Structures
1.
Amino acid sequence: MNHFNLGPLHFQASTSVLVLIVFVLILTTCLGVIAIQRSARRKQTSALEVTRLFCVTYLCAMLLGPEWRTTIHSDLKPEIAILWDDSLSMTTEDAIRPENIAGNESILTRSALVQRILDTEFWKTFEKQDRNRVTKSSFGTPPPPENTNERIIAGTDINSALSRILETERNLRATIFIGDGDWNTGKTPIASAQEFALKKIPIYTLATGSKQYLEDLELESVNAPAYGIVDENVQIPFTIKSTLPRDVRTQVRVRSESGKERTKSITIRANSTHYDSILWKISEVGAATLTISIPVANGELLEDNNARDFVMNGKPESIRALVIETLPRWEYRFIRNALSRDPGVSVDCLLLHPSLGKGDGPDYIQEFPEKREDLQKYDVVFLGDVGIGENQLSLEQANLIAGLVKNQASGVVFIPGPQGNQFTLKESQLADLMPVQLDETQKQGLSESLETPMRLTPEGEKSLLTMLGDDESQNEAIWRGLPGFYWQAPVMKAKAGSTVLAVNDSRRNEAGRLPILVTSRAGSGKVLYMAIDSAWRWRRGVEDLYHYRFWGQVARWMSYQRNMAAGERVRLFYSPERPKPGDFVSLTANAFDKSGAPLQDESLKVTLKAPDGTLSQIELNKEETAWGSYSGKFRIIQPGEWGVRALASDDPTASIEAKIIAQSDPIEKTGQPARFEVLEEMSKITRGRLVTAASLEELVQEIDALPEPQPLITSVKIWAHWLSPTILVILLSIFWVGRKLNGTF
């Protein structure tokens, strides 16, 4: 590429383009001379050909890409900017003090090392003979401890800090960045480093801290449910991260403000993440603050991340259950007894006997609830050996149950029997809710000559649904000792997306062991499939202990989400239960009119009250169903307690209030390894260098030897300016008019 200047005008073109332009100009000149010699009006033709030549010359000049360049010489001395990280991550005590830095400690915090480096006043070398200006600034300073919310969301934005240097400082010679490279907000620092590279300003990074994790146990997260039933166990999942080089046997402790506590012994493997849960029994109604903690292990360097507080609400239970069956088999009788004797459950039974007619007596109903307002009051529906047909369910009734589950967060429990009636449900929407695939060739099920045990899967061992003991170790022994079964439904395998909690310990096929207990989600509701009908045998030797407990837990597990916030005419539930700032919370609501029928036309508005008192309002979208379902979402922008009030009309009874606790981990964490790779990439892009405090003198010498910044050159691309085509059009217009006046066509 050839470059040449005419004063402030700059041109560039390849040799082939220059040859072509010269050829075109010579050809145009020759053709013009010939035209003049042949013309009878030589004076007018000469003017016309000169105009043509000027047009061609102007067009050729534009092909050379002309630019108008202006050189601006700064009246400021060259500047060296020193920028250091002052965020919370810099308080990590893992920086090694080199011999060239004064002090007595061998290990100190990253921020302390930065201060020792600044105390050396190494930049004085740059200011000798008044050759450079030095500016010093920090970024990421955290809010004071009393500003809890602001401190939680405070982070490190290296990209913005570097961008401000470019925006506010001029005539930069170099930038020195001192920090650990641990950024967690804003864009990647590589973006601003590329801007520095375009301006040929090197970034020299001085790394502090260690690239290795500190030896530590950190209680990373606690995912406790938003509420629990009084006098019932809740499962509190937690995550612990270990960076210790050895296995640690320790205790997890949950403690209430009243002093009640529960512990669990666990073993955490070296350099691993441990996922586990602990049971907690809620003792009173209302919100309670609990603390989960682990003791400080030998060799731990950080002690402030071994405990977490969280809030959980206790609620009185009020569960409505509907049990539908054809034959009064033993399983039906004992399920009915278990639910009717449970003080927290109100049960209705519909017995559709094929020959004796409908069952009668306490807790019995005579007809299926045909209206949605009658059916929607049930939190869970138990479907025994029932299908679609004469003296059983109709197709419309089966579809109503499916709609209840999918649209109103109710649950359905399938408990098949040897009649195989549930195969007829494939004609209804309930077939899609079943979490298993059935074997059409064995509708009467699989019989066993010997008692067959079932075994919990890893998911089943952790599920609250199968928790029959007071802790996990006791629960495992209980399940091993439970009586087995002699009949199983013809299940081939579980469907994708479902969770298998227990399997047949003796039978298997090409898909694996045959599933016994399978759960899944369906819309906003839950589904449980139990492939045996002999849970009543669990009463052997212990009476109702495990049998009642199991079915009580099934009813509570099914109704959990539906009863998050339930009023007279509005029911509201949300996900996730414990959002963090930045998360979107999905709201789902069901609204009813005064007669209990689902609302059809009215809107549902939700008022949100942020932790700082700010009010906002959103309107939930009406779902295209006849169940009065609404949905919407909002974003959590602050940690703390959010108030949610849903209002279906001006009637106060058509409203419900709920509280959502947004608990956030601080964005900025201590104990994390320094990110040398980020610092190295920043320096590499800008042709700088990554160094440590031990090489401070070399860094000073290298920067001091840098050439002075080049003057700023501004360029206006003439060929791309709007005046360029305008001038060409004017010249061509003059040429065209001249041809007409000269009589040339």
2.
Amino acid sequence: MLMPAIAIRTDDGRFPLEVGRIFCLTTNYRKHAKEMGGTGEEKPSLFMKPWTALLPLKDGEEGEVPIPSYGRELHHEVELVLACLDGKTWAYGVGLDLTLRDVQRELKAKGKPWLLAKGFDRSAPVSGFVHQDLVPDPETLGISLEVNGTVRQKGTPRDMTIGLKEIPRFLAEFSKPRPGDLIFTGTPEGVGPLVPGDRCRAALSVADEPAASLMVRIE
């Protein structure tokens, strides 16, 4: 079975990277934790998405994401995504952790895993990725999300509870990062609902300069 691949941009062009595991951090932005009913002091945790959730997109390409029939309330969560190249070298992209919020609330109340809420097909659209050599200071990275032309979310690594340098070490406490691993690093405040017909544009910037983007239409 062929695994999905993402594109890594370097000084010399682009190369494909076959994706392996997909990790996601929870509550890694304090203001988002508060908007979800927390205190903002929660320690981030981890969950995983199956590779079938991945939807790699090129700049200018628009993907389609159908809302699963068993959910009623789809929410957007824009995230900075890390791609592990060799265990020590990383690339940066932007992604969406699309979430069936009504299903997640029900699962949380029952103490059950979130797979049905966050692991459905195409629930993890991602852009192309930028090699770390093209990012002199990762703290200058920025992510944003527009829905139908209106900005809904913005964030930078400075807003994270566990910073970019610490995230690989945080993951390694559970499992050593491997080439092809993706890490969704958490979402800033401003998450909200999406309905059929909505168009989303997520963008990654480096020192306020455009670096990568993705577009999806909700079906």
3.
Amino acid sequence: MTRNVQILSTGSYVPERVVTNAEVDALMGESTNDWLIANVGIRERRWMAPDQVTSDLIVEASKKALERAEISAFDLDLIIVSTDTPDYLSPSTSVVVQSKLGADKAGSYDVNSACAGWVTALDQGARYLMTEPQMKYILVAGGYGMSRFLDFKDKKTANLFADGAGAVVLGVGEEQGFLASNLLAVGSFHDALGIYTGGTYRPAHRRTWHSSARPKWSSSKNSPRPSTLNTGRNLCRARSTKQD
């Protein structure tokens, strides 16, 4: 029997603090306001409060999705969290979300695929429901806490990224929902844009606190960043607006 996977509900959350282009310009020491508005449409973004972490944003979005699906956190069979700004290097942010939601019977794991992370997590969640008949509900959530990692000397990225979270509850229904997917990557740019401190390449300790440079063996140093980086055509564009 075919199990038709559907998005039963959605939820989103952005922090209260609004940061204008003028505020970011002051931090960078240079104005990019006109360029941002013309090329990406960004006039403001949201940054989380000092006492917030990525899991807090995800929990708020998830609560809305659960309420709209008319189920409780205890009904969840699995939680998949997509983020590349986790609360910790280990354990996973998903297990923090599980604890904060009280989803005691749900398994959990993280997906880190940067801008493609949430659609990758959605793909995995859908395939679980398609192949595991004992599963009924899966929470797929994505969260960004990028304000904690901004380098204001990098004027191509510091003015772009922001904080927020989104979540969906997946379930099975009569009508066809999820159809298929095709995951692609361009690995040659792995060292062009990222957070390069905290892993085994550059562990986080006193000697590396102020280092954010790309890997020394960077294959993309001789290849310029894509011409669409930080433009309306770039898949990594980010804009937070307060909704629901």
